[in-house]
Amino acid sequence: xxxxPVAPTLSSATPSNxxxxxxxxxxxxxxxxxSGGTGSATNxxxxxxxxxxxxxxxxxxxxxxxxxxxxxxxxxxxxVDGTFGCTTTAWGTIASWPMNIKPSVPxxxxxxxxxxGLSSITPTIGANGNxxxxxxxxxxxxxxxxxxSYTASIVGTNTYYVTTYNSTTGCESDQVAITVTITSSFxxxxxxxxxxxxxxxxxxxxxGDAIATLTGGSPxxxxxxxxxxxxxxxxASLTNTITGLQSATFNVTAIxxxxxxxxxxxxxxxPTELAVSLSL
Length: 280
What we know:
The protein has no helices and 22 strands. It has strands at about 10-15, 20, 25-30, 40-50, 55, 65, 70-80, 90-100, 110-115, 120, 130-135, 145, 150, 155-165, 175-185, 185-190, 210-215, 225, 230-235, 240-245, 250-255, 260-265. Strands 2-8-7-4-5 form a 5-stranded mixed sheet, with no helix packed on it. Strands 9-15-14-11-12 form a 5-stranded mixed sheet, with no helix packed on it. A 4-stranded antiparallel sheet has the order 19-18-21-22, with no helix packed on it. It is rod-shaped, with a radius of gyration of 37 Å.
């Protein structure tokens, strides 16, 4: 008489049986050979990624994709043999992994950011997360910050990768790539045409000029120059001049095409007024 069938039990599991996982983590379980029944007895396995709500046939030892699951992943086994009146064993759980939901990806107003000197990456945290993780520059594995925003400061074009992270469960979303282009700030150098050591040739004259020149950094044209005398010039040049000036102080604010700015100031001097005395 054949022995009653005995269902397979757990031989090994990856990760270890009972380990809490994040949705999307692959798991696998390997069952023993089982025993009993006749020579035609077979083992059956099934798995569920939604805590037993639905089941699928499982190949012993295969990897299980858990994306789309809910609260637990379960693997069960049984041994089937209807010959000689032997009964089929009931399904029995050989491995299970409690599962936390994977956060949704963060969202952005734009995945392309342009800034001057510094540029802030400020995502909206995805569902099932409570903060964000920032990777880069140009690396998907180098973690550089955890928080609600990150300020990039490397001049040039670089790619950063951002995820939604749940600091309680340790679960993390897929990465979103953000391209950041930063131009370095510049300096506004002020000069003026000289007239015998003065910016105005004669006392009370109006032949002075003020010249603003952008140096350093990497200003992007066109540049708009806002002068304190009310003149505004938007030109494809790193130099701008205003003329017909009397003795005074003139300020200028220069803003380039990506928002970088600089401020300059110059005072125009004139000769002293001539005094004439007559003797009789």
